[in-house]
Design a protein that fits this description.
By secondary structure, this protein is of the alpha+beta class. Helix content is 30%, strand content 16%. The protein is globular.
Amino acid sequence: MTPLRPRYSKEEFALRGQEIYERDIRPHLDPADEGRFVAIDIETAMHEVDPDDYTATERLLARKADAQIWLVRVGHRATYRMGTRREGP
């Protein structure tokens, strides 16, 4: 199997992915989807939603083997958080 390679710059990748999410997917999500992951093919707008990021991306890859995947976490500014949360003032 040939490894997937990005076909777009990081900026174009992010722009396309976020635009598809905001325009085509987010309006159809429910409050129950909060915290779920959305894997989006930035070329076709095909997507999968799942509580597990790996499952969402694998299901999308099963549908479109060469998908260029942008990953979003519903209701969060970032898909992942690194480090620890500081408590207190």
